[in-house]
Amino acid sequence: MRKKIVAGNWKMNTLPAEGVELAKGVVAGRGEVCSCVNFIVCPPFTHLSEVAAALKGSDIELGAQNCAAEAKGAYTGEVAASMIAALGCKYVILGHSERRQYYGETSETLNKKMAQAYENSLTPIYCVGENLAEREAEKHFDVVKAQIEEVVYNLTAEQFKNLVIAYEPVWAIGTGKTATADQAQEIHAYIRKVLAAKFGAAAEECPILYGGSCKPSNAAEIFAKQDVDGGLIGGAALKAEDFLAIGKGFAK
Ligand code: PEP
């Protein structure tokens, strides 16, 4: 049985006090959702510590939105994987399309970040997904395959056991457009096939999340698909009620 995961990517939103309020709201309502759903919140670096304190005593886990490619040293403005791990993070989002697009993250950088994550016992939530032009040119399968082969294929079998993949079509992120449940299933199944080509049966255990304008009204239909194991949620993760309601979308 694969883990069911609902992870919130808060992006560059909330001041520390607002983040703490949001985390407290998630903790307060968590009991209404099946304990079989694993909730993860990924606040900005600046409030990881305070949010960790707000989550204490609950089963909601903490993640960061990024980490540095190097372990430590003269890298002004960077935040090391060891630092976020020390603040209580168990997960780190890597390769988000916004980082690939606006900060020029390449597979080369992402290989280094993945190594840092594993060295610090963090589980990467590795994001893949095509942009609109690639989808329209029907290149989406090739794009996600390359994003997986260039990074995930470099993992050891042991590391692969601690990996979450998020499929996030760029055209659906923050746009209000969502992939249909069938589109999500089609590419999730394909991703699992690409993973299986390298890691065999272990691919069956790897959670693959859908991300892109996922909200309470569409989560259930998407999560009902066989190869969709939950969601990476942006906008709707900023309201505790919506974030939790997305978790109620698991009917299986
Ligand atoms: C994201 O960026 O990870 C995301 C899924 O955003 P949204 O839900 O706002 O589309």
Structure explained in plain terms:
The chain is α/β, with parallel strands linked by helices. It has helices at about 15-30, 50-55, 80-85, 95-100, 105-120, 130-135, 140-150, 155-160, 180-200, 215-225, 240-245; strands at about 5-10, 35-40, 60-65, 90-95, 125-130, 165, 210, 230-235. It contains 11 helices and 8 strands. An 8-stranded parallel beta barrel has the order 1-2-3-4-5-6-7-8, surrounded by 6 helices. Strand 6 (about 165), helix 9 (about 180-200) and strand 7 (about 210) form a beta-alpha-beta unit. The mean pLDDT is about 95. Phosphoenolpyruvate (PEP) binds next to strand 8.
List keywords for this structure.
252 residues, alpha/beta, 11 helices, binds phosphoenolpyruvate
Provide the list of bound ligands, each named once. phosphoenolpyruvate
Shape, per Cα inertia axes: globular
- Determine the number of helices (DSSP H or I, runs of at least 4 residues): 11
Strand order of the largest sheet: 1-2-3-4-5-6-7-8
Mean pLDDT comes to 96
- Percent strand: 15-25%
Number of strands: 8
The structure class reads alpha/beta
> What is the CA-atom radius of gyration, in angstroms?
17 Å
Uncertain runs: none
H-E string: EHEHEHEHHEHHHEHEHEH
Largest sheet, in brief, is:
8 strands, parallel, barrel
Helix content: 40-55%
Distance between the termini: 11 Å
